[in-house]
Amino acid sequence: MIWVSSKPLAGILGALALSVAIPLTAHAQATSRTCSGQAGETPGPACLVAHQDLGALPRTPLYWNIYTFADVQAAERAKPQHGVVVQAFGEIWMFDLGAKGRQFEGGRHLADVGPLPIETPQGDFSAEYLKSTFAPGMTAPVHVHSGPEAFYAISGGSCLETPDGVQVARGSGHSLMVRQGPPMLLMAIGQETRQGFALILHGDGSPPTTLTSAWTPKGLCLKAS
């Protein structure tokens, strides 16, 4: 993703227009940039911390389970079949997809984000986990996902605008979700730097993220900031 300043509104719209003038194929796999060095932990583009092939999804409600561990070895011992262990923001994290409220030995259970809005559970699925740091007012070009996306923030405030309206959440541990399909714009709001993770759940064979010029945000997140 290409990050732009969100102030003023004319600057957003001009930057978005510039970004979508670039051939969409250049950014169709926007989450394929793997994290290295300080990527994702200083203001700038999000990067991919883990990819997980899931196979067929269960028919029961599915949650993004989030834990921290004291060390990598403890996390790896506790990790279930579809879990992933991530080192980010000075912590050892374990992410899993499953039922709500599960506990794992040695882990501190932080959140169950969901149930994830999965509209078409047929076929095999994959999970993309990203990390990012947004300075206040930072945003990204308008884009769509081929499956639901969920956000978990460890600091700052988030505003998500789609054609359906706007979602706003603030403070450590907040989360947001969006269903497959609608174009979206995510902005960091408030005065604190926003750091956190995102999960994109998508069917195999479909690009996780694609830029689009089919919709222009109304600037609702600027009003929320």
Description of the structure:
It is a single chain. This protein is mainly beta and 225 residues long. Helices cover 11% and strands 43% of the residues. The protein contains 3 helices and 16 strands. The chain has helices at 9-21, 72-78, 220-224; strands at residues 4-5, 47-56, 63-69, 84-88, 91-98, 107-113, 124-134, 138-139, 143-145, 149-155, 157-162, 165-170, 175-178, 185-189, 194-203, 209-211. A 5-stranded antiparallel β-sheet has the order 2-7-15-10-13, with no helix packed on it. The longest helix is centred in the first third of the chain and has 13 residues, at 9-21. It is globular, with a radius of gyration of 17 Å. Keywords: Signal. This is Quercetin dioxygenase-like cupin family protein. It comes from Caulobacter rhizosphaerae. Residues 1-28 form the signal peptide. InterPro entries: RmlC_Cupin_sf.
User: Which structural class fits the helix and strand makeup?
Assistant: mainly beta
So what's the overall shape?
A: globular
The largest sheet is: 5 strands, antiparallel
N-to-C terminal Cα separation, in Å? 21 Å
Mean pLDDT: 85
Q: Provide the low-confidence segments as ranges.
A: 1-30
* Gyration radius, rounded: 17 Å
The tally of beta strands, per DSSP, is 16
Spatial arrangement of strands, main beta sheet: 2-7-15-10-13
Helix fraction, binned, reads: 10-25%
β-sheet strand percentage: 35-45%
Number of DSSP helices? 3
Helix and strand element order: EHEEHEEEEEEEEEEEEEH
Keywords: Signal
Protein name: Quercetin dioxygenase-like cupin family protein
Organism: Caulobacter rhizosphaerae
